[in-house]
Amino acid sequence: MVILKHRTKQIIWKLEGRVSDHLDMLRGVAAIAVMISHERNLFFADYPSVTNPNLFIKAIYFITGFGHEAIIVFLVLSGLFISSRIIKAMQNDRWSWKYYLVSRLSRLLVVLIPALMIGAFWDQLGMWMFGMEGIYGANPSVNGQIVTFPVNERSSLLIGIGNALFLQEIIVPVFGSNGPLWTLSYWFWYYILFPLGLTIFLPNLSKTRKAGAVLAFVVILLFVGQTIALYFLIWLMGAALTILPPWKLFLTSSRKLHFAIIFGFSLLLGCLFAIKAKIVRTGFESDLILSFCFAYLVYIILHVKSGQSIRNRDIYKRVANLFAGFSYSLYLVHVPFLVFLQSTVISNSRWQPDASHLALAGILFILVLLYAFSVSRITENKADDIRRLVLSRIG
Q: What is the pLDDT of residue 17?
């Protein structure tokens, strides 16, 4: 742990400065990318069924098709943020499982539990109003590969509790129509695995406790299964950024740094294009390549100094903080609401991407953002207050 001390503190300081705005912007854009991908798939015909696929329509379908890739971005950023806090606490001899678990669980559950309840409301209302003939019954003509199972079969209280305990895709399926919930089990168990793995570096911990931590690490890996265990490598891609030393080449001049940032974005866009063009085989292989390209871009961004400004700095900061501030809520609550909205306006087949329907989709896009933002004010925005309250009660 002594080896990591200087490097870790340096990166953590940067995360608290100007770099934080850039990472917040990336987090907000990723959440919007997930949502807009689901909206397009739910409301618009699959691309092979488009009657007039001109260049503009091709561009729209391309831009709105990166929902899964945005989740990989979330995994890398999660690894960076969470690992830096864990290592910092251990380095300063302030590591506490109690404080850590309260902090993480308050952050996760303050949005997850309301999202499960709100999602159940929209699903039950939708099934009551529209029945099981349409999307709630996984009708292939309207599901857009978003709801691929009858919603009533996954709406039991037991499944809801399993999702609240982060057991989705391990013991229970995702709850109701809310497909994005599958990632919560990934994130939660990575939050447990990483500090367990670092325990062997703690100097004041007995060999017995270290052995227990290693055993718990192995048991959890076996429990979560091969897929979740495999994607831990992508989460660790972000964690690796916490301890990588600065590349002095980028620190010699702002021109070199700007060039490196442009190259990083170009590399990421090239990777996304290669995935969509099926140059790279989709699956874990493409996700791993994407995570590497994105991690490289983030590594370059970590070199941005607080004194290096951009035009309209205050506006940029406010926009970044705004979208990052409700990105988690947006991620967890948008699908059941979109499914309900789809049921109200689509009966037999999804829309063609003509001007009128694209305009209507734009209105729905804004409506969903406002909806998620409103939910975040009473959930995500209260996470710190709940954390402090719980810590004060348990001592």
A: 53
